[in-house]
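Technical appendix A lists one of the benchmark inputs used to test multi-chain prediction within the project. The record comprises two sequence entries:
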Amino acid sequence: MKQWSNIFYLGTKELRTVIRDLVVVGLVIYSFSLDIYLQSTAVSESVNNASVAIVDEDNSALSRRITNALYPPYFKQPELIQANEIDEAMDHDRFIFVISIPPNFEKDVRDQRQPTIQIDVDATAVSQASLGNSYIQNIVNNEVNHFVNRSDEDTSYAVTLVSRRSFNPNGTGMWFGAINGLLNQITILTIILTGAALLREREHGTIEHLLVMPINSFQIAMSKVWANGLIILVAFSLSMWLIVSNILEVPIVGSHLLLLAGTTLYLFAAAAIGIFLGTIARTMAQFALLLMIVIIPMMLLSGGLTPIESQPDIIQPFTMLLPSRHYMAFAQAVVFRGADLLIVWPQLLFIVGLGSVFFISSLALFRRSIATEH
Amino acid sequence: MDYAKADTKSSVATIRNLRHKYKKNLALDGIELDIPSGLVIGLLGPDGVGKSTLLSLISGARKLQDGQLEVLGGDMGSQAHRNRVGPRIAFMPQGLGKNLYSELSIEENLDFFGKLFDLNSAERNSRIKKLTLATGLNAFLKRPAGKLSGGMKQKLGLCCALIHNPDLLILDEPTTGVDPLSRRQFWQLIASIREDRPSMTVIVSTAYMDEAEGFDYLVAMNNGVILETGSPQALKSKTNTDDLEAAFVKLLPKEIQQKDIELVIPPFEQSKATPAIVAEGLTRRFGDFTAVNNVSFDIQAGEIFGFLGSNGCGKTTTMKMLTGLLPASEGKASLFGQEVDASDLETRKRVGFMSQGFSLYGELSILENLTLHAKLFHLSVAKMKTRIEELLERFSLEEFKHSLASSLPLGIRQRLSLAVAVIHEPEILILDEPTSGVDPVARDGFWQLLIELSRRDKVTIFISTHFMNEAMRCDRISLMHAGQVLVCDTPKNLVAEKNADSLEDAFVDYIQAAMGENQGHSQHQDVALSQERLSQATPTQDEDLTPKRFSLFRLLAYSFLETKQVIRDPIRLAFAFLGSAILLVVIAYGISLDVEDLTFAVLDHDQTPQSRQYISNFQGSRYFIEKQALQTQTELESRLKSNDITLAIVIPPGFGRDLKKGETPSVSAWIDGANTTRAGTIEGYVSGGHIKYLTVLATEAGIDADAYYNVTMESRYRYNPTFETIYSIGPKTPAMLLLLFPAILMAVSISREKEIGTITNFYVTPTSTTEFLIGKQLPYVCIGLINFLILTMMVVFLLQVPLKGSFLGLALGAFFYVCASTGFGLLISSMTKSQVAAIFATTVLSVMPTIQYSGIIQPTSTLEGVGQFVGSIWPATYYMHMSVAAFTKGLGFNDLTKDLFILALFGPIFVLMASALLKKQEA
């Protein structure tokens, strides 16, 4: 009982500390409001606003038709350039795609001579190149077919394919972006807040003061976990409700309660990592660098940027050790697929397990790290 | 009251109606004062009456708010005047070694200060030699300042202040927390310097009345106003007392005076009970340094046991072992007859500990600090209330109870620490220099409490102190030196044994005797000898002193300093290099847009050879992994939901039959659309597979499928024909790392100076903002460039992405880029006060734009709205672009010039913004 009341009182102290630091409060608010909004609205589709140029050496009705078929939001309004400008323009990143329509194109099509359209793709724009290329091919094919058939009828195939997207039928990229952004913010802010809170106590000597009182390191660490976790949980809930649900209109299919519960568990795990870093770093500078080394992989390898199964085989097992990976899988399942506890329990178990490992390791290192400080 | 007239000499500072406010608190309330030149002027007064504020205003470290302040013949409100007189003023702030760089050695610290004042190498060397010989620091030139004892730190601080022969020396409580021997040496040093330079004025604030006795002119302050000025003799005769301490008390307002009651200590009655504290052969080593060597003592319940010794002799370490904070290397310590056990919470409830230096929460108010501790010790609500009221009253903290602890002066914070240490009415009190920096009146009040606790409640008190009058009040004292206990007896016996006049003399005798056994003798001779040499030095002060506006020399001094500090913390450097190397590998391999190994399952309602032929298109592809077939539509939905599969292909009933009949059957593909990017790719793969099937079908039917096409398309994947992510991400990853690491290192470096207090050196020396910022920036630019080389080598040799274009262009770009990222760090740290805020702000503000808006995945041209705008004003965008152009596109120098030009602008803009925001004075 006394144990828990100590944790409670120490935690209220943590809350006061954070709330009185206006810079930190301002940054937390920014991260969960404006930053989320900007991130999710910056990119909406997989292929979006891709820059295209057309080298039109035919200058026919058909070539103009193709030019007009490329329009926003997928593509920017195509620019017309000359053949000799291609290299220079692509070198300077002016265009991701350059479509070259040869002379006599329309005539050759009409005569069924199968003319060739050349598409130059800047393959360094990895996210757009392949998908955009296939979009362009489809568009060109459609336009040419319409032109040849003189109707909107599609050429008939033996089998038709109907693709349906579950969970996000229109493929609104913002949905995923918003959730991904929110998860990244949680990771960054929780780890910094908790880790720095511990390190500040060490640098200011207040930790020694606590350690001569009837308080053990478990209580100190736990109080930081709950207080800083609570701050982020509140920010997360508000952001989820106000920004994600109401302003960005992302539907949350699954149980809100389950989402909050899972987030709480993840906050414990992230805070535990913060405590762990705060225990092993000796100075704020070291902490800052460790922070970078930890949060960047946590963000990039969580599956939000690159799906886990696409990551190299060497890295995949390593991502099992990142709580962010399990949380990302959990959140996606609940938010988009409406998964219930029966489906996501393994992820939750991983999150709690990993969090506990970091938490217990920090406790084991705690006193030793303080004793060796001199 | 009217301002006091200076004697006959001209004044070094003229102060008229000076006021200073901290938020709502008025620290100085209309000061009127003339400070005569060529004298030692003492500033006396209780804690928190504005002494430190006044001193920092005179030195120019703090910004003038209201009133007139002329120092050395000019207005301190004018930057031009401050620049002019800066080199003639030296300021040593309160706190042990507060303005010293703890990683740097004595010599390096002195050398740095010399450089800030534009002394050339020969001048510096001769000054350093003279000053260190005079202070006895010469033997320890290579020792880092952080490892010096308090007394040595203060001496070094003084040397740093004197390196440029100032005309006005301002010392804020220079001897607080310094042992008697070092204190004596400190004042001897000042005296000898003044002999040498009689024109120099010294302004000192002090809590020691015996020191004040020796000053020429005293200024008594209270509550932001001057009470009285005059020589010690004049003050004594004015108040009809023969003791300066008594005279000072009489000058104070009546309500404070009344608290001053003569302390009576009832005799200590020896009890037969178990000793409360026992140490047996306690030893503690740090590496090969023995801090505490075989210390033994036992302290009876209810005894007041004083712990004396020179600075750094191991007192604090001993106390930490008693409290269980540090495990003993050898020997054992027991409290209440039980061996100290760090995990024993019950014993801790019976012990109160106050550590040296303030260690409570500065961000909480006094009341909140007390309440927190009362709750942590589980006092009942009623008890807590009365106890807190009692303590607020006892320590005169009532009027400050709602102020944040960090905003209060040292003396008042110490009182709070004491109040916290006794809040739970412990049976043992372990107090490490509890009264350092506390004014005499408050000290007596505190001792009254200690005596009461000891004699009435039988609380055992273990206290360390540098005040001899406090030591005299102890029942027994133990004298420690260099890790060993020299003697342990009653104070009277100790004085008698040495035949000394006072305990202080006895103390000095004991320590000198102990030092004589080691090396002390020769050192003592040195001091005498060197004082002679110092007096021979003739100051060269006649030339024009106005410092140059900009000095490359000072700038490089800062660079040199920063480099030294970085090198002394190899762990940080290793993290910076190793960390970015590891991240390069993780990111470059980890980010892959080649979607593969997708799990899929088939719901085949048809089960004919035709349907199986369709499915075979997806089997065995490197993109797809087939999972167990689906039976029902419900199963399909649930398995998509549980993320077991990301794609389901549904073949309708009668597929084979319809196909044969030529009745276009329709296959459907269900794709997990949660991750939209991935869903788009899958869609592409599925339609690719579908078209392949149609082609095969047509070929089997004897139709040349190709003939159906009206047009053929030829795609050329330029720059990266194999279309592997690594050729794009490989060159982009260093851009991310070269931004984040230098920025955060830089931000921490400056905010650390602010937090520790070394920033004062920037305030009070002729250093300009540009010199300070660029000087600190240079080493980090170099670190960034080394990092660039390491990362480039890794990209080429490890990731096997050849550098096809201009290395020169890339390297130049990296230089501009690192200037930009460190510049960003400077900008952040110029706006934040603490290291935590700096780290927080740098991370939050730089990670997102770098990962999301700079084109690492999504080309910037395809971004929308504010995101695109942010990307366009963020340096990472241009460097990533340039790096890809140089590596993968193989462009030459000329083709990179546009990016280079833009990149070159960021650094100077950030630095300019930072210098506009960084204040040259404290608020």
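Residues 11 and 223 of chain A are 4 Å apart (CA to CA). Residues 173-203 of chain A form the longest helix (31 residues). Comparable benchmark entries are summarised in Table A2.
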